[in-house]
Every structure is written in structure tokens, then in C-alpha cells.
Amino acid sequence: xxxxxxxxxxxxxxxxxxxxxxxxxxxxxxxxxxxxxxxxxxxxxxxxxxxxxxxxxxxxxxxxxxxxxxxxxxxxxxxxxxxxxxxxxxxxxxxxxxxxxxxxxxxxxxxxxxxxxxx
Length: 119
Fold this sequence. Notes:
Shape: globular
Mean pLDDT: 94
Strand content: over 45%
Distance between the termini: 40 Å
Radius of gyration: 14 Å
Number of helices: 1
Helix content: under 10%
Structural class: mainly beta
Number of strands: 11
């Protein structure tokens, strides 16, 4: 069974930075696409960023975070990180780590970490 544990959330002022990390246990992640999603109350969970090991770790970002957020992975440490810069109040949400096996499409979610950006 895969377990994903997020860390690094917290409270920051607008314009500040936070770094989220997701550590996986139970599986090597080299065959998984990894991503960060976020959700605010009353809205659907949305993709923030993803990284896929095929095609040399290709990345994908939501338009709202392009140029401000960077996703990266460390297969040796079984982690995926999200560096968030120039944070805005609208980035406030619970952030979730998600992994999906590229062949069998098993999906796993972390428990979420709160990010709050004050004006």
C-alpha cells in the first residue's frame, strides 16, 4: 500500500514563498506521474502542477500558477516538491499530492496540507 505524506504548508503573506513536499512510502515512484492539486471549500479539486517521468520529466502547470510555481521530483528520495513563489491570497487552499501509475493507473492521494496566504 502506498502512503503519501505532505508537509510544508502554513501561513504566509502575499508575495511570499512556501515549499511543499510529498514523501511516498511503499512504492518506488519512477513509474508514476506525480502532481499537486488544490481545493477550496465549495469548489472542485483542481490540478496545480504535474510531472511525468516519460519525455524527460515533462511538467504541466495551471495557467494561474505558471511562472510562480515549480514542481520537481527526486526519485532517489521518493519525493515530489512544489516550490511556490509570489503567492497570492487566491492560492489559499488545501494542497494535495497525487500519484498515478503510468501503466496500471492506480491513483493515490495524500491527506492534504493547508496553505493560507494573507493579503
